[in-house]
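Sanity check

After download, print the first record. It should look like this:
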Amino acid sequence: IGLPGDVLVILENEEGTCDLYRNGLKVEEPFLREEMTSKGNIHYPFLVPENSYFVMGDNRNESLDSRRESVGAIHKDDLMGKVVLRLYPFSDFGLIG
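Expected structure tokens:
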């Protein structure tokens, strides 16, 4: 969700759910099954530190992710894996290489 240097804000809206903004622009997430209802307990605006990433699970209302002080931004040295296949959007489905 957030790369080093990005500024993230999660705001509660009139419907009682939350909207995510990255660098001042609302992030549209049509792939989510339900609206996000938790901002977490970090302080906003949140500046993603150098060499770190802000991560959020797809199941926003049950995920333990960077919105929690106990997790926070993830340092790049703590990330493992390699993307080899893109599933969504379906128009870009295929191998990454």
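If your output differs, re-run the checksum step. Summary of this record's structure: The radius of gyration is 14 Å.
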